[in-house]
Amino acid sequence: MATPLYASRLNSFKVGADQYWPGKNRITAVDLLERAAAVEGLNAADINYPDHFEGTSAAELSVTLERTDVTLNGLAMRYYGDPAFGLGAFTNPDPVVRQAAVDLTKRGIDALAEMGGDLMTLWLGQDGFDYPFQADYARLWDHTVAAVQEVAGHNPAVDVAIEYKPNEPRAYSLIGDVGTALLAVREAGNSNLGITLDFAHVLYADEMPAHAAVLVDRHSRLLGIQLNDGYGKRDDGLMAGSVHPVQTLELLVELERIGYDRAVYFDTFPDNGLDPQAETQANIEAVERLRAIARTLIDDADLAAAIARQDAPTSQRIVGKALYAQAG
């Protein structure tokens, strides 16, 4: 069995910078990669564009990845650094600003290709609306689909994944759930398009993570998995499996069935003084335990029969025994 790829949110490793790098005035993505690589089992990285390229270059980042024996999982676009995108990146009412967002994304794809990567993730958090009668919804949709077509067509060898989120920073995201994400991918039509699922985003879109994964696999391509947890009210970014272990386990079972073999990315926030390295280690260990259980359940004939009958008491007993066998 291949060694699983685990990546984590690089910005998390800025936490406690004063203690980790005493006297260091400027922390770069190279520093963050080196700190992340010190976590046992963390062997992949997602890098944000353009912010993680400030003060460094694609070549320097590639050298750091090779030196630390970390695989590049992909790049993720971030539009929040430019105030011009406050009213939207791909949905901005100004065509000049929209084109600037498209061009920025193309430059990100070029940097990714230079580094030998093949996955660009788009989180379009600025693209949405806040008030009734603020937006022409059809126009916003058309602009978004056209922009996605253009950036995906820029380099067909690079996969482009849409990561949906119900809201934040906008009150309503244009692409806020699995259904609208699938519609956008289908309308754009590029063969290199797909979807990334963020566990906490799925929860507060009021979706079941395993169900969303099945829909994506059926109608598109599942290009990325971001694990974390929360209470379904916002993007809490809690440690994987800490609040919804059963739902996390069910998702991992479906990922085994689908044959998902890309990295698992931990989009968690070590706020309130948590040690980001210890938090990441806890994420990896939790998912490793749950993955081992998932492999025992995927071919469990009794569980399959119970699910076929929609026999929830039996299925819950089987899953509970697998999860909590040591308790009794």
Question: What tags apply to this protein structure?
Answer:
14% strand, TIM Barrel, 2 domains, two-stranded antiparallel sheet, alpha/beta, globular
Can you tell me about this structure?
By secondary structure, the protein is of the alpha/beta class. It folds into two domains: 287 residues, TIM Barrel (Alpha-Beta Barrel), CATH 3.20.20.150; 31 residues, no CATH class. Helices cover 45% and strands 14% of the residues. Strands 1-10-9-8-6-4-3-2 form an eight-stranded parallel beta sheet. Strands 5-7 form a two-stranded antiparallel sheet. Helix 2 runs parallel beside helix 3, helix 5 crosses helix 6 and helix 11 runs antiparallel to helix 12. It is globular. The two termini are 31 Å apart. The model has no long low-confidence stretch (mean pLDDT 97).
Can I get a quick summary?
This protein has 12 helices and 10 strands. By secondary structure, it is of the alpha/beta class.
Tell me the number of strands: 10
Main CATH class of the largest domain: Alpha Beta
CATH architecture of the largest domain: Alpha-Beta Barrel
Shape category: globular
Share of helical residues: 40-55%
The low-confidence runs, each spanning 5 or more residues with pLDDT under 50, are none
Name the CATH superfamily assignment of the largest domain.
Divalent-metal-dependent TIM barrel enzymes
Beta-strand percentage?
A: 5-15%
The SSE order reads: EHHEHEHEEHEEHEHHEHEHHH
Largest sheet: 8 strands, parallel
Number of contiguous helices: 12
Mean pLDDT metric: 97
Main-sheet strand order equals 1-10-9-8-6-4-3-2
How far is the first residue's CA from the last residue's CA?
Answer: 31 Å
